[in-house]
Amino acid sequence: MTAILLVAILIMIFVIIFQIAKASEYVSVLRGEEKVLKQNNRINAFLLITFLIFGLIGVWWCNDMFYGKTLFVQGSASAEGEKIDLMLYITIGVTGVVFVITQVLLFYFSFKYQAKDDRKAYYFAHSNKLEFIWTIFPAIFLTVLVVFGLKYWFKMTGEAPANAIEVEVTGHQFGWEFRYPGADGFFGKKNYKLTSGINPLGVDFTDSASFDDIHVSGTMHIPVGVPVKLIINSQDVIHDVGLPHFRMKMDAVPGIPTTLWFTPLYTTDSMKIKTGNPDFTYEISCDQMCGKGHFSMRGVIIVDKMDDYKKWLAQQKPEYYTVFPDKAPKTDSTAAVKSDTTKQIAALAH
């Protein structure tokens, strides 16, 4: 019944609009087409100016109302991201000025140069000068932006500094897994055929470098003030590591590892104070539509002071002992863990 009522309402609206149009047509015939056209020109010109004024007020009002809710207010949380912000501000500044000038002129000219009996439109078919100006100048500006963008891109995706902390990031529907190299500083090999419930990353434990690797889910810890290199993978479809607070993002492609590095500037605790938000957290999101659970694919990044980061890392149990609990040392002391790991490496070597 509701559907029939809606259809009836739509038909009535169409009939009313049609009758208004026909009535307007008859009025035009009676009053004279030329007179009506002139009147419509004046009305439209006035409406265009009104639209310009209220449009500019609306742009300012929206900016004033919503700017404080954007991440721009917080600033970039990484040294490399500050360059990205600078590029974006330059782009918005230049294009914003051009937008305002062109729109004001567009609507003002529509008002000023409306059709009149004593005015004849000036027409010219071609102007090399105008085409040169509106082609060359935007091209130069865009070329400069592209050059700077490529410079920063090659830097962030290139070789990380020698002191960089490495973290392997693996995306899957619909979550994030993180792996850290142990004391040896090397990641163990992986083999997708070894992926299982107890070994979700498919780590090859016949490789001695994997004995001290650490695996955590959902939450990534990184130190402040030190470059962090992310080695990014995907286990199923294309995902995207989105780091909005650090102004970084990189695709996670199945079978093709990608890399990205940045230097955190503020700890999580510092950002809580800076933003005035005691619940503030750095976020790792999936910025690529990856399935029906895409909206929930969110991880947390905790930026610690170096001492706190080392303390947290020392408290983590190597994944080797999770997969092979019978190999785990009987004591929780760090010395015993290192001793047992050394023995396992030596045993495999022989």
Secondary-structure blueprint:
Blueprint: H1 2-31, H2 33-66, H3 79-112, H4 128-157, E1 165-172, E2 175-180, E3 214-217, E4 219-223, E5 228-234, E6 239-243, E7 248-252, E8 258-262, H5 268-275, E9 282-286, E10 298-304, H6 306-315, H7 319-323, H8 334-349
Parallel strand pairs: 1-5, 4-10
Antiparallel strand pairs: 1-2, 2-3, 5-8, 6-7, 6-9, 9-10
Helix pairs in contact: 2-3, 3-4
Give a nutshell description of this structure.
With 350 residues, the chain is of the alpha+beta class. The chain has helices at residues 2-31, 33-66, 79-112, 128-157, 268-275, 306-315, 319-323, 334-349, and strands spanning 165-172, 175-180, 214-217, 219-223, 228-234, 239-243, 248-252, 258-262, 282-286, 298-304. A five-stranded mixed beta sheet has the order 3-2-1-5-8. A five-stranded mixed beta sheet has the order 4-10-9-6-7.
